[in-house]
Amino acid sequence: MKAEQIQKILISKGKTLVTAESCTGGRIAALLTSVSGSSEYFRGGVVTYQTEIKELVLKVPSETIDTFGVVSPETAESMRVKVCQLLQADYAISITGFAGPTGGTDVDPVGTAYVSVGSANEGKQFRVASNKKNRTEIQDDFAQQALDLFFNYIQSID
Q1: DSSP strand E in 13-74: where?
Q2: What are the distances in angstroms from CA 92 to CA 46, 63, 70, 76, 109?
Q3: Would the pTM count as exceeding 0.90?
Q4: Which residue of 97, 115, 139, 146 lies most exposed, with the fewest beta carbons within 10 A?
Q5: What DSSP string describes 88-143?
Q6: Cα torsion for 143, 135, 108, 150, to the nearest 10°?
Q7: How far is it, in rounded angstroms, from Cα 94 to Cα 75?
């Protein structure tokens, strides 16, 4: 299970993790905290489902959302940076996307999300896709993909 592997690595490094979730509605945090002892490294998470809450709570600039869209790598990156600062953590996982069945665009249809992993100072953004059939399955798939991306990220740093 990726959550257990992430926990082991972060505890051994003395590092902390937080989440900023939109389309997954807290599923990433739920996966991380399903492992006993997660409080040693997981500080908490913020579910910023509405655009207004991304701006009010995380302080994602409205210019970022207006220019690039609420579902974009730029918004995911801003969410990551801001949640690291807000919750004073070493690392964060953020996600914004379209879980369906409504929403989506020609460029980013339902089943598309952007994940950002890293610290307040540096990170990586990824476009992920899910071919699952319903909203719950898409959300679960997005959450698992986000954990996989973060796991790969922390393995690549010292």
Answers
A1: 17-21, 42-47
A2: 11, 22, 18, 11, 25
A3: yes
A4: 139
A5: T-SEEEEEEEE-SSS---SSS-TTEEEEEEE-SS-EEEEEEE---SSHHHHHHHHH
A6: 0
A7: 9
Q: What is the dihedral of CA 60, 77, 112, 56, to 10 degrees?
A: -10
What burial class does residue 140 get, using C-beta atoms within 10 Å of its C-beta: 0-12 exposed, 13-18 middle, 19+ buried?
A: middle
pLDDT digits (tens, 9 = 90+) for 44-64: 999 999 999 999 999 999 999
Give the Cα separation of 24 and 99 in Å (integer). Answer: 8
* Number of Cβ within a 10 Å radius of residue 126: 18
SS3 14: coil
Residue linked to tokens 């796991």:
151
- 58 vs 73: CA distance, rounded Å: 16
Q: Which amino acid is at 40?
A: E
**49, two tokens:** 């489902």
Please answer whether residues 95 and 24 qualify as being in contact, where contact means their C-beta atoms are separated by less than 8 angstroms: yes
- Cα separation, 81 vs 108, in Å, equals 23
